[in-house]
Give the backbone structure.
Amino acid sequence: MITETRVDAETGEWRLSAPRRAERPDDARPTSVGCPFCPGHEDQTPPERMRLPAGDGPWQVRAFANKFPIVSPAGTDGSTATGLFSRFPATGDHEVLVESPEHDWDLRFASTEKALEVLLGLRERARALAAGRPAAVVVFRNYGAAAGASLRHPHSQLVALDQAPPGLAARWRLARGHYADTGRRLVDDLAAAERGTGERIVADNGVLVYQPYAASVPQQTVLFPDDGRGSLADATDDGLAAVARTLPALLRGLAEVLGDPAYNLVVHAGPSDVDARELARWCQWHVEIFPRTTTFAGLELATGLLVNPSRPEETAPELAKAMSAAGR
Ligand SMILES: [Zn+2]
Ligand SMILES: [Zn+2]
């Protein structure tokens, strides 16, 4: 079954229609029995694309194609239509990166070295996917059933998209426009403004951690590594190390203040089909975490207006406290 992009004629928004996704296992059970991501079950996953450490020994990190991809392989033919029922094939690549051989492990328990190993693995795979010059490589981690994780075994995902959806294109347009107007990166101005008020800063030790002014959910948190690179594929070792030193403690802090919440972690990055030096002028990759403690209801669906029941000025200090208690 080909996955396709359908365009909503009333909003111009794109929707991915990926029927095979419904066949996914629903296995968020806290047991490793039958888990396809556990060591010894490698034959249950699509062919391996990377393992760390490299070689034939036991792996610590392992990547392979997603068995239930949300996109079809690049070059897949599919029907295209315009008008009210506009559609085109959704193509690209979709990969899983298993972060640890341990089923019950979690990123929040990672040592700095282990977190760095995961980030290095993600960078390597992001690079490999970006080499095909898709429009975008999107990296994310779904934690907990409410965040869409269908398998409990700790893993991240990478999706290469051959077409950039309107929401992503709009983000890039704003950042490019800011650079055209000021000669500065929007994210740098934002970071400076956040440091200026200090109200929403969670930590600022190698990587700036803050909660965005217009946060859409409680405890939404940004990690901003200022390594001067526009995408994870191009991230510096120092940038990754700075995130590795901070991320596990941040996740422990979130687990503390919200009671081990489901969350989505996303890596924001620029387009993959432009020159890296050019990209770095207006774009900086960064990480954003969206805890999933709220649900979207009528107003959100009618207007796109997300209602955040808390203010980042109140939640950021809570998280800062929990995070320093959790150890940096
Ligand atoms: Zn497992
Ligand atoms: Zn951002």
